[in-house]
Amino acid sequence: MRTPFGNPGIVASELQGRFSPETDKIVPPSKFGAVARVLWPEKTAAHVACIAGKDERTAKRWLSGEFEPPAVVIAAVIVELVKR
Asked: What does the pLDDT look like over 21-51, one tens digit per residue?
């Protein structure tokens, strides 16, 4: 089994990110996730998943920054930001 070199917590803190052991990569903090959590403070992943028509697990990966969200989700966030 392959493991990252060094202590994952220390390596992640040095790189200003979080360690994701499933993918063996350092994930920087997601600005998309921070904005989405402000817009939908409760059940954020469920709201984002409903907008995109995907499952909640996929939405959690978008919110964490592990994967980029699709354009339709980003457009929905922009619409929600400018809505009065």
From this structure: 565 556 677 788 888 899 889 999 999 998 8
Residue that is written with structure tokens 């220390």 in the block: 10
Q: How many of the other CB atoms lie within 10 Å of CB of 47?
A: 18
CB 77 within 8 A of CB 84: no
Q: Residue 45 belongs to what domain range?
A: 29-82
In a domain, 47, yes or no: yes
Asked if the structure places residue 7 within a domain, the reply is: no
At which residue do the structure tokens 């989405």 appear? 36
Neighbours of 46 (CB within 10 A): 14
55 within domain boundaries: yes
